[in-house]
Amino acid sequence: MVKVLKSLGVEVDFIEEQTCCGQPAFNSGYQDDARAVAERFLSIFDKALNDESGKDAYIVCPSGSCTSMVKVFYEELFKNSPELLNKVRNVSQKTFEFSEFLIKVLNTVDVGAGYKGVVTYHDSCHLLRELGVKDGPRELIKSVKGVKFKEMELHDACCGFGGTFSIKFPKVSVSMLEEKIECIINSGADTLVSADMGCLMNIVGALSRREIPVKVMHLAELLASRG
Amino acid sequence: MGFEEVRFEQDSEKAIHNKPLQKALVNVTNRFRTARNKASEDVPNWDNLRAAAREIKKETIENLDKYLLMLEERVKRAGGKVHWAKDAEEASQIIVNIAREGNVKSVVKSKSMATEEIELNNSFEDAGIKVIETDLGEYIIQLAGEHPSHIIAPAIHKTKEDISKLFSAKLGIPRYDKPEELTKVAREILRSEFLNADMGVSGANFAVAETGTIVVVENEGNARLTTTVPKIHVALVGIEKLIPRYEDLSLFLTVLARSATGQKSSTYVSFITGPKRSTDIGGPEEFHLVLLDNGRSKILASEETRESLYCIRCGACLNNCPVYRKVGGHSYGWVYSGPIGAIITPQLMGIDKAPELPFASSLCGACKDVCPVKIDFPKILLELRKNVVESKKGSTGIGERFGIRLWRFTVEHESIYKITNKLSYYFQLPWKGRNGKLNSLPYPFSRWTDQRDFPAVAKKTFRERWKNNKGETG
After folding, report:
1. DSSP secondary structure string for all residues of A109-175
2. Which of A93, A155, B97, B405 lies deepest, with the highest CB count within 10 Å?
3. pTM, to two decimals
4. Which of B118, B160, B115, B119 is nearest to B135 (CA)?
C-alpha cells in the first residue's frame, strides 16, 4: 500500500504508536475493552490529523473491516460519550479504505500496475455492506495491465471468517469457506484478490491446506505489481 | 417445540454432515433468493419502499400501546372478542378454553409461527381435542412429529422420498413418488377435515389497528378455509404484528410477497374483520383475537434492540444468510431460525437460554441488506453479544475473558505490542509446517488449524521494515 501510494505522489507517514482499532473485542461483546482501545486509536489519530492540519491529511487503511469499525461502529461504541463524538467524526470522515481512497480522493483507477494472470475478486462483507464499496476494487483490478478479470459466482457471499466466529463455530465457518473455494475454482481464475486481511487469511488457509494452486493477494499487492 | 436449551454448535455440525439436508438447503434458498432478487429489482423504488415500511413499523412499535387499544376496540366493535395473553401458557389456555366452551372436537389450523411458539398443538392434544395442520408443509411435519425449519417453508428439510415414506407409514397408503400425487392425497384428507372442524385457528401477517382487520397471506387456500368454514375462528397474533392504517397494507403486502417468495402478490390474501355479519352468507359465528406478548414487551422495553419487533416474518434473511444456508433451521434450537431467530430467540426466551445464538453469525450483514423493514441485524447481534458477555454466560468463559484482557493489555502498550510481534515469530517455529505455514496449533487455535493453515508470522515486522526503508516497504 505504501509503495502504491508513494508511486502516486502521496506523502506517507506511519504513526508507530498505533496498534489496533478495537474491533476484535467489540465484535466479541467486550465493549468496555473495545472502548478503551478505540479511545487510544482516536486520540492518536485525532492528534495526527491536528498536527497536519495545514495539509490535506487522510488516514488510509488496507482493510474494509477496520475502516468500517472506525467509520461506522465507533458512533455506536461511543454513543454515550458525547465528549468523544467530535473526535469520532473528525477521524472517521478522514478515514478511507485503500481502494476508496484511490478512487474517491486521488481519482485514480490506473495506478500503472502490471500482472499476468486471471484474477477474481472476493467482496469482503464489511467493505461491501458497511462501506458500500463494490465497483471500485473491480475497476482498479481491471486497470492492471495483463490482468484478465473473471467474476465468480457468489462473489458477495461471506467466506466464513467473521473474526472469532471462525473459531467459535469452526465447522460452520469452514463449510462456508468451502463454498467460497468452490466458486473461486469454478471461476477459472489463478489469482484471488480481496481487500481484507481476515478473509484473505481464511481463504488462503484453506487453499494451502488443500494444495489448490490459486494465488491469493491483497488488492494493494496486486496494484504494487509491475510484472 | 420443547424448548430446553440451544445447542447451536452441536446441532449445526449434524446439519452440515446431513447430505440430503445440504442439498435441500441449497435448492430452496437459491430459489427463494433468486426470486426475491428479481422481484425487488422489478420495483424501481424498492429501497424507498423498504424505508417507508420501516418508518411505519417504527411508528407503530413506538406507539404500540395506543394502537393495541385501538385494535381491541375496533375488533370488539366488529363483533369479535379480544383476549390478552402474557405468555405461551396463558395463550394456550385461553384458546383451549374457547374450544371447550364451544364444545369443539376437532380443530383445523393454518400456518402460524405464533402457534408454533406456544406449542398450541400439544395443548389441544392434552385436552383431547383433535388438531390438524392444513398448510402442506406444516401437515408434513405434524405427521413426522417435527418442527418447522424455515419461517415460510416449514418442511424444507424433508426430501420428496422422506415425504413419500412418511405418508405411506402414517396414512396407510401405498408409496407415491410424485409430488402431485402426494399433494392430492393430502388435499383429499384435508378437505374432509375442513368440513368436520368446529374451530379454525390461524395466525396473522398483519393486524390493522384502525379497522380491526386481520390479514392472512398464503398460497394454498387452506388459511381461507380455516378462517371461514368452521363456526369458530381464533387468530393468535403477536402484539408486534400491528400496522396502524388500512392503507398501509398496500405497501406491506408488496414488500412481504416480494421478499418472501418473489411473488408480486400472494395467491390468497384474506381480510378478516370480526365474525360473520347478519348479511353474510357464510363465515364463522365467533371470532376471537388472542394477542400474544410472550416476551415481546421485554424487547419493546429495550431501546437498543426494539427494532427486532419490526419483523414481518418474510424469511428473506434466512435465504440470504450464509450461516443458515449451511446449518438449516433446527440448529437454532427453537421455532425461529436464521438471523431473525438469532436475534429474537435470546430476547424472547432469555439470553441465558440461548447464549450461543448472537454469536452464530459472521456479521456479514447480508440479512440487513434484504430485510424489507431494514432491521439492523449486525447492530442487534453486537448488542446481544455484549449482554451475553455481561451476563457471563455461554462460550464466553474464563479463557476468552483472559484472552481479551491479554489482547487489550498488549494493544494498549506499544512497546509490548512490538515485543509480542517480534516474539511470536520465535514462538510459532515449533508449529511451522512443511508449506511454511502453521498447520496445527494448540487449543483454542486448533479450532482454526484443524481444517485450515494459519499464516506464519514474518521475521521482520512491518515496523522494522518501515524504519529501515522509510517507505520502500510494500
Report:
1. S----EEEEEEEEPPPHIIIIIS---HHHHHHHHTSEEEEE-PPTTTTS--S-TTTHHHHSHHHHHH
2. A155
3. 0.96
4. B115
* The pLDDT of residue B474: 45
Q: What DSSP line would sit under B362-410, residue for residue?
A: ----HHHHH-TT---HHHHHHHHHHHHHHHT-TT--HHHHHHHHHHHHH
Tell me the per-residue pLDDT of A83-96, one tens digit each, with 9 for 90 and over: 999 999 999 999 99
- Pair type for strands B206-208 and B213-218: antiparallel
Is residue B308 situated within a structural domain? Answer: no
Check whether residue B248 and residue B341 sit in a common domain: no
Q: How confident is the model at residue B397 (pLDDT cuts 50, 70, 90)?
A: confident
DSSP state of B135: S
Decide which of B380, B396, B412 is a domain's last residue: B396
B463 at interface of A, judged by CB pairs closer than 8 A:
yes
The verdict on residue B306 lying in a domain is no
Q: Which three cell numbers stand for residue A112?
A: 500503472
CB pair distance less than 8 Å for A27 and B382: yes
Confidence of residue A51 (pLDDT cuts 50, 70, 90): very high
Split into its structural domains, chain B has a count of 3
Enumerate residues 8 to 47 of chain B having a beta carbon within 8 A of any beta carbon in chain A: 8-9, 12-13, 16
Find out whether A95 and A67 touch, Cβ atoms under 8 Å.
Answer: yes
Q: Domain limits at B256?
A: 55-294
| Residue B62 shares a structural domain with residue B109 | yes
Mean pLDDT rounded to a whole number for chain A: 97
**DSSP string covering A23-50:** HHHHHTT-HHHHHHHHHHHHHHHHHHHH
Closest CA to A129 of A71, A60, A82: A71
Is pLDDT above 70 for A124?
yes
**Sequence ranges of the domains in chain A:** 2-103, 110-223
pLDDT of B473 above 50 = no
Band (pLDDT 50/70/90 cuts) for residue A125 is very high
Identity of the residue numbered B427: F
Return the H-helix or E-strand segment holding B340: helix B338-349
Query: Does residue B305 form part of some domain?
Result: no
Fold of A110-223: Rossmann fold (3.40.50)
8 Å CB contact of A205 and B454: yes
- Do B85 and B116 fall within a single domain? yes
State how far residue B344 is from chain A, nearest Cα, in angstroms. 17
ipTM: 0.96
Note whether B16 contacts A130, CB cutoff 8 Å.
no
Mark yes or no for CB contact A16/B12 under 8 Å.
Answer: no
Cis preceding linkage at B444, omega within 30:
yes
Cβ atoms of A36 and B395 closer than 8 Å? no
